[in-house]
Amino acid sequence: MDATGQKAFQLAFILAPDGGGCSPTWGGTSPISSDSTIPSVISTIRGKGGDVSVSVGGYGGTKLGQTCGTVAATAAAYQQVVDKYGLHAIDFDLEEPEYENTAAIANELGAAQTLQRDNPGLYVSVTIPGTSAGTGWFGTQLLDQAHSIGFTPNNFSIMPFDGGFSGASAQVAALEAFHGLLTSHMGWDSTTAYQHEGVSMMNGRTDAAEYFYQSDFQTVLDYATSHGLARYTYWSVNRDRQCNPPNNNGQLSGACSSVPQSDWDFTKYTAKFAGVAVPPPPPTSSTPTTTPSTTPSTSPSTTPTGGSCTAAAWSSTTAYNGGAVVSYNGHAWTAKWWTQGDVPGANSQNVWQDDGVCGPSTTPPPGTCTLPVWSASTAYSGGAVVQYGSPAHKWTAKWWTQGDTPGSNSQNVWTDGGVC
């Protein structure tokens, strides 16, 4: 986090117990009910302005969708994970051997839909294998199952590696093919499909002896940002360092990438995707210095504790990074970590710090807008609505954005709804 500005981390994997049953465990061996290790990890990340998603499933192992028997039982098992860690995001990584099990996939998708319904604001992603056609036959069956039950996750992500891929051009082609599958199988228009599409890559040498370099990550990043994809991630930060020797004698490692690199080269691309500025490297001098900043390039403004609020009004549809400042019920509030949908003052996780009374929210510019005023420091999800300009216009975000001024962004992030 200090070296790259990265704020979001995914913890993997939640599985069924190795001996069978319907209770969630880490890796099939460590019950979450007695876990005392991961909470401290999450607390550290949140304390530095970040947050986590927990991934369930993965390649190999026995999945809860296979052992729990019903949608309700599967959802109840995953709800334990959400409650244990106070999650704001969860990922369903649906792979072998569950991937080919129709009943298990029905349990998983039904459980994901249940969690989404029962936990307002929970970010739900679904990750599946990628092929040159976007995804394979079982992947299209999975999309059809989701469509049939009316389940719309925040995104479907493919993993374009370990399938005969050669460089970023093959990955981009797969993502474009998958976009076509999302339109045909989910019934979405092109823009909606992009807004619900994501990519999960692998850095350096893959299991199938493919090689992906920093330039490949940049190419895929350019595609993801220019098309408004919802997610850009990779496996894994544990490997984001150089082996010794750099090529690891042509071997795969879980602790390094097997390609030439500096520490955290690949993580810097995910930080860029999130709109976070990469801090400069620390000085080489032996003189003690302060820790590099990990805040976004546009820092949240300071809100006074008395008088009129100058911060934008809190919105349940906006995703806020740690440090974001809002006004709500006449008080100023500062987000301790990433949050969306958590009402200031009413969340059991104490996401928002109450900075005290500051009077009514900022008076809107000329016009009749009652919408939150756009803020460069706020991260907005697709569909978020703000006011900006004088006279004030209504602007709707097409996809995730932060720091992109309405009306002036080359990617056309914001749709102008006209003077209000």
From TrEMBL:
<dbReference type="InterPro" id="IPR003610">
    <property type="entry name" value="CBM5/12"/>
</dbReference>
<feature type="domain" description="GH18">
    <location>
        <begin position="1"/>
        <end position="263"/>
    </location>
</feature>
<dbReference type="InterPro" id="IPR001223">
    <property type="entry name" value="Glyco_hydro18_cat"/>
</dbReference>
<protein>
    <submittedName>
        <fullName>Chitinase</fullName>
    </submittedName>
</protein>
<dbReference type="InterPro" id="IPR017853">
    <property type="entry name" value="GH"/>
</dbReference>
<dbReference type="InterPro" id="IPR052750">
    <property type="entry name" value="GH18_Chitinase"/>
</dbReference>
<dbReference type="Pfam" id="PF02839">
    <property type="entry name" value="CBM_5_12"/>
</dbReference>
<keyword id="KW-0378">Hydrolase</keyword>
<feature type="region of interest" description="Disordered">
    <location>
        <begin position="275"/>
        <end position="308"/>
    </location>
</feature>
<feature type="compositionally biased region" description="Low complexity">
    <location>
        <begin position="286"/>
        <end position="308"/>
    </location>
</feature>
<dbReference type="InterPro" id="IPR036573">
    <property type="entry name" value="CBM_sf_5/12"/>
</dbReference>
